[in-house]
Design goal:
The complex is a heterodimer. Chain A is α/β, with parallel strands linked by helices. Helix content of chain A is 38%, strand content 28%. Chain A has a single domain, classed as TIM Barrel (Alpha-Beta Barrel), CATH 3.20.20.70. Chain A is built from ten helices and twelve strands. In chain A, helix 8 packs across helix 10. Chain B has a single domain, classed as Class I glutamine amidotransferase (GATase) domain (Rossmann fold, 3-Layer(aba) Sandwich), CATH 3.40.50. The radius of gyration of chain B is 15 Å and the shape is globular. Classes of the chains: A alpha/beta, B alpha/beta.
């Protein structure tokens, strides 16, 4: 039996954990290494670090930070943000990541996903997809949510699976940072569209939202705001889900 | 001394760190002599059986691990390291493993996605429940360990299957005999359960 995963996410900019609303209005949420170690100690199933820095200089700093975070934890570690080539992915993996996440670069050049899967194995490749509802349609957004594409989200994640992605990290921009709950119809449609795991992201504001996302078919739930700012802890989240019959680690 | 055998695969430092978290210092080594001199030998690994087999062979590390096992030293394999304890694998026809365990390495035969990735619950078999190293880690309860693999041990004698995971069907994920043990999963990525398992290995006196 595979446990459903609870995954804290560290959005990192200029060496600090930050968290915004709809990808905007960022506020500080601490030191990445300290936060990572704390989440590991509290029993996170996995950790995701997304570098949301705009500049290449900041990215070099991030690679060094990836190494320090990796040294502080004993769980699978996914790193994303700015990975545009197998060389970028290799550098993140050598720095201590177990998986790499690609988003904008995969949209610009879908063959990158196939090359990454070929080089490192599908289990290493997380395809991150940012989605906004635009006129009743699930639109794929790129470039940190600043740019709308012509892609429809469900078509795109089917394509990502075919290209060799090992899992889908599905973020609702509409819900990001709002605490209003995950976009459940989006999660359910995505989970039905592919056989690889779908990780729900964007909107968790309470523990009940985590349960709703699992019920909708997510294999894991990613959350930042509730763990960074709202005082919910990972042991509480696990206990809450376990009581409701979801297979989570004790 | 605990040595972690460095045969050019990834993820070695995390094994050393996890042993450290369990309170045991370990040394990464590329030296067959150090492997022969060690009290405990750990063979980790991520990657392809054929490549791993060639590297172990060419470096002399494979022969050193076999010597350590034959002289009764506790020897543990992790993931590919464990798979290399078998004589052969479906992943690389013709490539030779160390032959420390009977049986073979097979690919998952399932409609579920392969590789099998994630925190999978591991239950001890009756043989595992009686194993001194495993008994103290499991304390009668199943535990979750992080798995990432397409191939797994198979066709072992029943008493050498110590723990099973389930992915559509049960598969051996903790195996061993005498002073040899192996985990198909990654204890170094399995948080407290994994640190406890590595600590138990470091204290194991078979």
């Amino acid at each position: 039996m595979l446990a459903r995963r609870i995954i804290p996410c560290l959005d990192v900019e200029a060496g600090r954990v930050v968290k915004g609303v709809h990808f905007q209005s960022l506020r500080d949420a601490g030191d990445p290494v300290e936060q990572a170690a704390r989440y590991d100690a509290e029993g996170a199933d996995e950790l995701v670090l997304l570098d949301i820095s705009a500049s290449p200089e900041a990215r070099t700093t991030t690679l060094e930070m990836v190494g320090r975070v990796a040294e502080a934890i004993f769980i699978p570690f996914t790193v994303g943000g700015g990975i545009r080539s197998t060389a970028d992915a290799g550098a993140a993996l050598r720095a201590g990541a177990d998986k790499v996440s690609v988003n904008t670069a995969a949209v610009r050049e879908p063959a990158l996903v196939a090359r990454l899967a070929e080089s490192f194995g599908s289990q290493c490749i997380v395809a991150a997809v940012d989605v906004r509802r635009v006129g009743g349609r699930f639109s794929v957004m790129v470039n940190g949510g600043r740019e709308e594409t012509a892609l429809e989200a469900l078509d795109w994640i089917r394509r990502l699976e075919a290209l060799g992605a090992g899992e889908i990290l599905l973020t609702s921009m509409d819900r990001d940072g709002t605490g209003a709950g995950y976009d459940l119809p989006l999660i359910a449609a995505a989970a039905a569209a592919v056989s690889i795991p779908v990780i729900a992201s964007g909107g968790a504001g309470g523990l009940e939202h985590l349960a709703e996302a699992l019920e909708a078919g997510a294999h894991g739930v990613l959350a930042a705001t509730i763990f960074h700012f709202q005082g919910s802890t990972l042991p509480e989240a696990r206990a809450y889900l376990r009581e409701r019959g979801y297979p989570v680690r004790p | 001394m605990i040595v972690v055998v460095d045969y050019g695969v990834n993820n070695l430092r995390s094994v050393v760190r996890a042993l450290g978290a369990a309170g045991h210092e370990a040394t990464l080594t590329t030296s067959p002599d150090e492997v022969r001199a060690a009290d405990h030998v750990l063979v980790p690994g991520v990657g392809n059986f054929g490549q791993g087999s060639r590297t172990l062979d060419a470096s002399g590390l494979g022969a050193a691990v076999r010597d350590a096992a034959e002289r009764g030293r506790p020897v543990m394999g992790i993931c590919l390291g464990l798979q290399l304890f078998f004589a052969s694998s479906a992943e690389a026809a013709g490539a030779r493993g160390l032959g420390l365990l009977p049986g073979e390495v097979r690919r998952f035969d399932t409609a579920l996605p392969v590789p099998h990735v994630g925190w999978s619950q591991v239950e001890l078999t009756p043989a595992g429940a009686g194993h001194p190293m495993l008994r103290e880690v499991f304390r009668g309860e199943p535990r979750f360990f992080y798995h990432v693999h397409s191939y797994h041990p198979a066709a072992l004698p029943e008493e050498q299957v110590l723990g099973t995971g389930t992915y559509e069907r049960p598969f051996p994920t903790l195996v061993g005999r005498d002073n040899v043990i192996g985990a198909q999963f990654h204890p170094e990525k399995s948080q407290r359960a994994g640190i406890e398992l590595l600590g138990a290995f470091a204290r194991w006196r078979p």
